[in-house]
Amino acid sequence: MATADVAPTGRLRASRQACRTGPVSLLSPPPGETDAGMLPVMLILASVLFNALLAIINAHVVQLNMNVVAGSEFLIVLVAQATAFKYYNQQMLPWYGAMVFIVGFAIIRGSYLGYFEPKYVRDVVLIPTFILLGMTVPFHRVKSAVTILHVVVVGGVLFEAVFTSAYADLFDVRQYYIATRDFTATAFWDTTSDLFVSATRPDVRFFNFVDLHRISSVFLEPVSLGNYVIIITTFLCANFNRFSLRYCAFLIAGTAIALIGCDGRLAATCSAIIVLVTLVAPKLPPKTPLIYLPAIVIGTFLFSSVAHPDALADNFSGRVAYCAHLLGSYEIVDWLGLSDHFVGPAADSGIAYVIATQSVVGLALFWVLLNFEADERRPEQIRFTHGLCTYIALTMTISYSLFSIKTAALLWFIHGALQRREVRVASPATNGRPRASRRGWSEVLVSPQP
Predict the structure, then answer these.
(1) In 3D, which of 167, 253, 260 has the Cα closest to residue 210?
(2) What are phi and psi of 265, to 5 degrees?
(3) 226 vs 307, which has greater pLDDT?
(4) pLDDT class for 198, splitting at 50, 70, 90?
(5) Alpha-carbon distance 439 to 148, whole Å?
(6) Which of 42, 115, 235, 265 has the fewest Cβ atoms nearer than 10 Å?
(7) 3-state class (DSSP) for residue 10
(8) CA-to-CA distance for 369 and 363, rounded, in angstroms?
(9) In angstroms, what CA-CA distances link 407 with 41, 141, 151, 226?
């Protein structure tokens, strides 16, 4: 058996032992790799489901308020940060640097405006938090989290569709959002429904062959269910060659049910584009996703100036025009994130919101970090990065729902786990020699027993 020409200590001894018993599965933790266990999985489940649990408590036990929701989220983030720090390695350093920048800019912004707004830190710190958490586990933990969530989410879709009254009584979504958010009773234009304000549309459904309201499942509102659909589509497209046909069918069927249920126009369009992008992604030049966000911003201005859509219309073209209108109204202090003038109006434009709260410099640095810290050594990494950047670019044009922990936690957790550098079993051609990655990190590669 050929082995790496280094001292047989620690990780290498474990790898040699593994070779005596055969190759290591990609869905199992490689020998010698750190594994934070099921705690990160439980944190992802909590991130997705805690609002549903609080809604039940609010409906049937005691009325809650915004502080309870914020406190619950803070606790999840705190435990996630502690878990990541416990398993710290050098790969995590750039994302810790990103958090230092986020907090530092928030202090500068607060000093300039005369007050500090924790929400603006919270919105973006979710990204490095769950990327770091993902780096603490091998891929099979991610698969476990997705499998459990898919059963719960799709089960919630079917429960809400078939037993709508029971769902409304269980969660009482209207009262939960009135009690814990800045919603008022008048914001819920459909006074006959106890569901979320956007669960019913004044116009017809996008998937009009189904006579249903817009389903929310355990997310309590349809937009997050639509974002979940996009995330699972990206996850599947990136990793389909690692899954069995049965598991792929499980993900596809559940995602289709969720997509039809939430009636997501953006979810359907974005998912279709991601399927196409991920098919060609491995053949594209390295770091191609870097151009996606700038291209979308330029396209937004071109579309708005050529088509002249109504910026006040509540549809896709109207949201795109609204984004262009907002950005065209920004002054220098707004581009530098030192004004609150457009923070409220930017609720329907993620790009405008991030610039208003983090500055155009912060947005640019995040985008560059995300792309240049993304390894492209394996096809699944390439495909997921392309799908992720496509999702961000399209979603941020018309919404800032990207920053909801209900979907952000899962999205960035998957990305972090896929970016985690692992001990890999080499092909016979490598003859067990150490191989240097693109980024200078060496991997111990061991040939399987002939």
Answers:
(1) 260
(2) -70, -45
(3) 226
(4) confident
(5) 34
(6) 115
(7) coil
(8) 10
(9) 14, 17, 16, 10
